[in-house]
Design goal:
Oligomer: single chain
Distance between the termini: 41 Å
Number of strands: 18
CATH superfamily of the largest domain: L-asparaginase, N-terminal domain
Strand content: 15-25%
Number of helices: 9
Strand order of the largest sheet: 4-1-5-7-8-9-12-13
Shape: elongated
CATH class of the largest domain: Alpha Beta
Mean pLDDT: 91
Length: about 325
Amino acid sequence: MKRILILQTGGTIAMQIRRESNGEMVNTQSDSLLRYIPELSQIADIECRELFFKDSSDMGTGDWITIIEAIRDSYNQYDGFVVLHGTDTLAYTASAVSFAFKNLNKPIIFTGSQVPMSVIRSDAQRNLINAIQMATLPFNEVAVCFSDKIFRANRTTKMSIGEFTAFNSPNFPPLAEIGLDINIKYSLPPSAQQMECFPVFSEDVIVLRLFPGMRPKKFLPLLENGTRCVIISGFGSGNFPVSGEYNLIPFIEKCVEKGIFVVMASQALFDSVDLEKYSSGRIARDLGVISARDMTTEAALTKMMYLLGRFKNPHQIRDRYIRPLRGEMSAN
């Protein structure tokens, strides 16, 4: 029987309703999971470990590193890993973890729930059973398991606040779908090389979401105090204002002058940034702006945080950012 380690970090799936306290939400201890779902012992030999209990909106890079190091230090003792996580920033954490592991030959499955496990109509039980089942399979990915689908972690984004189908993968199909059987459609090939782990992230990154009427001059102070990258969430395929008081070009030029990377992403969830398509994109390209292509915002951000944390040479960072590292972007 496969050995699976469940890492508890908090979120709705880690909560229960204490009925004697007027519906107060309290943390569910990890050993309670096996009492709620005794069937789990039929799937795998399971150990639960509590790393911390946090609302995922309070999580930061230090928490990512705690998760990564817990997996790294236990990597040889288990066949797979399941991380319980709040849904709000799950896609960020899962994406970050995917970049930290190189030559991964075991599954790391993130899951959570929209409703606490103690509620009758909760999605927690189904998600947890599916995640543990996936963690027993030969599956070389960091993935997100939610609502009978398995998504590549760094292709995933939260789509809904109130639906059980909370997550989707806009530009890449599900890795697997779960029905009567588990149908695995895609998986990164196994590596013949030894697993490597790099739990390093730089927080010297900012994300700017463009909007009509945005005055770029107001954001120039953000370029001080060690900022190393600005990710611009532009319109459509990477468009942005290029005339009048809303002209973004002087802001980009100031970034380039300071040696700050500029990445152009899109507010649209589907398809890819194309800096060749319109004149503004071509101007950005000529200034050295990097296209995020079809990466999610979560992947575009965490990939840069990882690269800035690991490398100092700008050429190494740029070279690795524009090509796929862990399946986070399309090859062409």
